[in-house]
Amino acid sequence: MEMLDEEHETLPQPRSDTNIYNLGTINNHNVVVAGLPKAGNCPAATVITQMKMTFPNLKHGLLVGIGGGVPVKTDHGMIRLGHVVVGEPTGIHSGAVQYDHGKATAGQFELKGFLNSPPTALLNAGREVSVRRQRIDHDPIWKKTQRIDTSRPHLRRFKFPGVANDYLYQPDYEHRQADASCEDGGCDPKQRIERPRNELNEAFVTVHRGTVASGELVIKDAMKRDNLARKLGVLCFEMEAAGASIDFPCMIIRSFG
């Protein structure tokens, strides 16, 4: 909600629509914001279907959330903690691929899950924002994130963990406690991969563009992540795009925090 330039009053909606909406404007565009009840393609598809029923004049969508980044290098450097990936057509891919959808033939898995490309209007808008950011000294994206007062107790979880907590471990290293931080879980610091910190500028958000992988699986295995990334040429993994973009033109935006 902090990204809205102006907030509007809620409007009546059908009883069959169980979504909760926040209305407002961003740069003079009317915007409808809805959250998902849980992660996954099915919840995303349900939310989009109900949203289109209540707001039939919606033109485009932005699927914004968190994802699992792949530690690879792009034109903007290595993908790191706090960076953003925008789904954009590259090579044979449309900007997003459903990596767990296909058919098994002769001991191989043939991928069939290529998703629709983002609308041209959104691709052009994204390029325009990129050009403008290159011409100014301050970052408008970072400035807007400062609207979130992370000093408040209930908003602290949205605070950027900081460069000091940007750890990358060897792909074959098994973390001792999956649900705990590396420091609390006692992970071996000798297994960390040394990376230069001068690439990071916390006051300027790095945005990468390329293919996003969508599926129902939570990728916790670094070796599986890297193998899929090499095979598909993806920059990050997420769990909703396949459900949201089937019947609704949208652009995928994911961050890693």
Automatic annotation (TrEMBL):
Source domain of life: Eukaryota
Stored InterPro entries: NLR-like, Nucleoside_phosphorylase_sf
A GO molecular-function descriptor: catalytic activity
GO BP terms in the entry: nucleoside metabolic process
Cross-referenced PANTHER family: AAA+ ATPASE DOMAIN-CONTAINING PROTEIN-RELATED, ATP/GTP-BINDING PROTEIN-RELATED
Protein's UniProt name: Ankyrin repeat protein
Species annotation: Beauveria brongniartii RCEF 3172
Lineage: Eukaryota, Fungi, Dikarya, Ascomycota, Pezizomycotina
